[in-house]
Amino acid sequence: MQRRILISVLTILMTVSFQGYSDDKGGFNPNGQPPAPHEQKDGYRGITDGQHQITTKELEKLPDRTWVSLKGNIIKQNGKNEYLLRDEQGSIALIIKDNVWQGQEVKPDDLVSVNGQLMHEQTHSTIIVREIRRL
């Protein structure tokens, strides 16, 4: 009898403690309004030899698998791990896996910095994000 009570209590404790982990997952929260493109101050920055700011068009000229650092607003979620980042120069698709969020919640009006790898596909380019920080 005591063994059953102990097992029941342990089961309840484990259930309650695991529910806390699911709530701290973080990720994109679509509530909020991104700033207008002309009000955004930071643009794309590619990690290149010159370390100068580049435009969206220049991103297209960078080689595949180039590591880049970008600042902007994640304005919407297009799929499970697919998002759209916008700055005053334009927008680019992001792929952000759940573990990259590290408990951070990001809204469209939050300025973020993302670091990742530029991947060119036939019709568009994508950044596979390895790190994201809310600024």
Overview of this structure, please?
It is a single chain. This protein is α+β, with helices and mostly antiparallel strands. It contains 3 helices and 8 strands, in the order αββαβββαβββ. It has helices at 2-23, 56-61, 98-101, and strands at residues 27-28, 44-46, 67-77, 82-86, 91-95, 105-106, 111-120, 125-134. Strands 3-4-5-8-7 form a 5-stranded mixed beta barrel. Strands 1-6 form a two-stranded parallel sheet. A hairpin with a 4-residue loop joins β7 and β8 (125-134). The longest helix is centred in the first third of the chain and has 22 residues, at 2-23. It is elongated and about 70 Å long. The termini are far apart. Residues 18-22 and 43-52 have low confidence and may be disordered.
Strand order of the largest sheet: 3-4-5-8-7
Fraction of residues in H or I helices: 10-25%
Element order: H for helix, E for strand: HEEHEEEHEEE
Unreliable stretches: 18-22, 43-52
Largest sheet: 5 strands, mixed, barrel
Number of strands: 8
Continuous helix count: 3
Give the rounded overall mean pLDDT.
78
Shape: elongated
Topology at a glance:
Elements (H helix, E strand, L loop, with lengths): L1 H22 L3 E2 L15 E3 L9 H6 L5 E11 L4 E5 L4 E5 L2 H4 L3 E2 L4 E10 L4 E10 L1
Parallel strand pairs: 1-6, 5-8
Antiparallel strand pairs: 2-3, 3-4, 3-7, 4-5, 7-8
